[in-house]
Design a protein that fits this description.
four-stranded antiparallel β-sheet; 6 strands; alpha+beta; two-stranded antiparallel sheet; about 140 residues; single chain
Length: about 140
C-alpha cells in the first residue's frame, strides 16, 4: 500500500499538504481553456447545475480562490495517515490548549468534508465534555 514505516509495517504517519505550483498552474490553464456546452433553454436546476452557475464557479476557482491560504489553514492542524483495510485514512486533530491533551470524537458519517470537520473543531465548546476532535476520511493523499 505504500504507507509503511521504516520496519515495513503499516503505521500512523505524519501528513502535510503540499500541492506543487505546476499542478495549480495547470488547473488554472485548463479552467481558462474550458469549452462550454450549450444549455437547454429554460432548463434551470431541473436538469442539473445551470451552465452560468458552473461558469461563475470555474471563474472563481481560476481567479478568486487562493489555494495557498487554504493549504496553510489545513496544515495548521496535526494530520496523519494510516492504512485501514484497503483505504488510506487521513486524520485531522485539534487539541484543547488548556487541557493539553488530544481527544477523539466519534462522528459517524459526519462531518462530510474536511472543511466541515474544521468548523466543528473550531466551534466554541464546553471543555469538560469536548476536549478535542479528529476527523478520519478515506483519501488518496499525494506524497
Amino acid at each position: 500500500m505504500g504507507d509503511h514505516g521504516e520496519s515495513g509495517e503499516p503505521g500512523i504517519r505524519p501528513f502535510h499538504i503540499d500541492i506543487p505550483q505546476a499542478g495549480l498552474d495547470d488547473l488554472n490553464t485548463r479552467l481558462a481553456r474550458t469549452c462550454w456546452p450549450d444549455e437547454l433553454p429554460v432548463a434551470g436546476w431541473d436538469y442539473g447545475i445551470p451552465l452560468e452557475y458552473v461558469k461563475d464557479l470555474a471563474e472563481y476557482w481560476r481567479t478568486g480562490y487562493d489555494w495557498r491560504v487554504h493549504e496553510r489553514g489545513l496544515n495548521a492542524f496535526a494530520q496523519f495517515t494510516t492504512p485501514i483495510d484497503s483505504a488510506t485514512t487521513r486524520t485531522l486533530t485539534c487539541y484543547d490548549a488548556a487541557a493539553r491533551a488530544p481527544g477523539r470524537a466519534k462522528m459517524g458519517n459526519k462531518p462530510a468534508s474536511l472543511n466541515e470537520a474544521i468548523r466543528v473543531m473550531l466551534a466554541p465548546s464546553d471543555v469538560s465534555t469536548w476536549i478535542a476532535c479528529a476527523r478520519c476520511s478515506p483519501s488518496s493523499p499525494r506524497r
